[in-house]
Amino acid sequence: MDALTFRPWSAGDLELLRLANTPEMTAHLNGVESERQLLDRHARYLRLWDAGEARMFVIEDAEGAALGSIGFWNVEWRGEPAWETGWFVLPEEQGRGVASRALGLLLDDARQHRAGRRFLTAFPSVENAGSNGVCRRAGFEMVGTVTDEFRGAALTMNEWVFDLTD
């Protein structure tokens, strides 16, 4: 198994968002984003990192090739401050455990940067077996199912939580 590393999201990483913005990659996210939405998300990643409200990373292999992205950002969950995580792995890299290994590294980073937060949450679509499996393997607890609007349509998601103090 190849080693994985993270590097902070940078101004030059917009193309990685574009590579992930395909019908295949966004099937569980209510579809692709417009170019304007991609530009806004890219700028948000950079701005929130600078403000200490998020930690977004590029997942890289041992040679420094980008395999995907993972990170966490500030949310309120059940009335208290928490982090929420999300990730993607490029199609040609899927099925090799990249997301699971990246989430393990991210848990270490989230513990180090808790900033008073106890929980890391994740909300994959109920239909996204891969991401739900990643949560389960990482030791998250599924505590419910929620339906909310995402990208202009209803999305039903499993609600996973990981206690960063354990």
Automatic annotation (TrEMBL):
Domain N-acetyltransferase, by residue range, is 4-165
The protein's matches in InterPro entries, at most eight in alphabetical order, are given as: Acyl_CoA_acyltransferase, GNAT_dom, N-acetyltransferase
Database matches in PROSITE patterns: GNAT
Q: Which UniProt keywords apply?
A: Acyltransferase, Transferase
- What's one GO-annotated cellular component? cytoplasm
A GO molecular-function descriptor: protein-N-terminal-alanine acetyltransferase activity
UniProt-listed Pfam families: Acetyltransf_3
Task: Give the record's family classification.
Answer: Belongs to the acetyltransferase family. RimJ subfamily.
Checking PANTHER family in the record gives: [RIBOSOMAL PROTEIN US5]-ALANINE N-ACETYLTRANSFERASE, GNAT FAMILY, PUTATIVE (AFU_ORTHOLOGUE AFUA_3G00765)-RELATED-RELATED
The protein here is known as GNAT family N-acetyltransferase
Say which species the protein is native to. Answer: Microbacterium foliorum
From which lineage does this chain's organism come?
Bacteria, Bacillati, Actinomycetota, Actinomycetes, Micrococcales
